[in-house]
Amino acid sequence: MIDSLRTRLRPLALWGAALACSAAAAAPGPADPVPATSAAFAAPAATVPAGMASRVLACTTCHGKEGRATAEGYFPRIAGKPAGYLHNQLLNFRDGRRSYPQMGYLIEHLTDDYLREMAVHFAALDLPYPPPPAPQGTPAQLEQGRALVQQGDAARKIPACVQCHGTTMTGVAPSIPGLLGLPRDYLNSQLGAWKTGQRKAQSPDCMADVARQLTPEDVSAVSAWLAAQPVPGNGKPVASLPAAMPARCGGVAEGGRP
Ligand code: HEC
Ligand code: HEC
């Protein structure tokens, strides 16, 4: 099943390579080493090729119809997330900074341009979120999670998550993801993976620094609280942060602003 869907991705991979060649011919010079600048996503509509929805069927076998996932289960939603964030993740999986072999296999031969087109396709989807599942955790644990997300803990050098992920926690265009509408298991696993070095972002990996400051109890508390929050405004990322981010993050424009 996945094998037959994988072959659907191939013609476009070649198409992407051809595009990259013709672009190189038109504008010789070194390639831009920073993939996720806002400039790369300035005119997204123009770069989504026709037939994309049928070609990403392989993705929706795991990520749910149109990439919208489900309220339960592990697979993260990808629909409507910031394009630069999605592109960075596809690069991370392809290049080994994140690992999920069944998915890596599908994208290992795809070009940067083709991955960007898929990212732009999923980012452009504007689909409602289901209501959140009932909170799983004691009131004290949920309160600990809320406080860490909204205020951080200065004494332990933990910045508030909202300083980078936005006050509505729906992320910031183009490269910072939202924290809502994600399964508790997925959140636990991602924060744990950053702590152990199994998940990496581009350098400087600010999330690794944040995650290393969190105890296992902090991780459980934050994940339990976040997973139980409703998602405002279909989870659309905000355009900019009110203040500069507390640290620099690789693959994200300076200050988190586009
Ligand atoms: C076999 C199941 C499977 C398939 C098929 C699959 N994925 Fe995934 N994908 C996953 C899992 C599981 C994760 C989370 C992995 C982890 O724990 O880090 C993931 C993570 C992602 C992420 C990161 C999401 C986030 O919030 O950080 C993106 C983007 C993504 N997938 C896009 C795609 C695209 C595009 C395709 C099609 C080319 C695809 N996936 C096909 C299972 C799959
Ligand atoms: C200095 C800015 C910054 C702070 C503070 C921060 N984050 Fe992040 N976070 C990021 C960036 C940037 C990414 C995207 C990393 C990448 O490209 O893989 C991210 C990604 C994530 C993800 C992955 C989402 C997904 O869909 O896979 C989770 C979960 C997360 N952060 C949780 C948190 C929590 C919880 C806190 C607070 C304890 C926090 N972050 C604080 C910048 C920050």
From TrEMBL:
One Pfam family per UniProt: Cytochrom_C
Gene3D superfamilies, alphabetized: Cytochrome c-like domain (1.10.760.10)
Alphabetized PROSITE patterns for the sequence: CYTC, PROKAR_LIPOPROTEIN
Keywords: Heme, Iron, Metal-binding, Signal
The UniProt record lists the keyword ATP-binding: no
Modification after translation, per record: Binds 2 heme c groups covalently per subunit.
Binding site for heme c 1: 59, 62-63, 103
Signal peptide residues on this chain, from the entry's feature table: 1-26
GO CC annotations on file: periplasmic space
SUPFAM superfamilies hit by this protein: Cytochrome c (SSF46626)
InterPro entries: Cyt_c-like_dom, Cyt_c-like_dom_sf, Cytochrome_c4-like, Cytochrome_c_Oxidase_Subunit
Domain of life: Bacteria
Cytochrome c domain ranges (all copies): 140-230
GO molecular function, one term: heme binding
Binding positions for heme c 2 per the UniProt entry: 161, 164-165, 207
Claim: Iron is one of the keywords in the record: yes
Protein known as: Cytochrome C553
Native organism: Acidovorax temperans
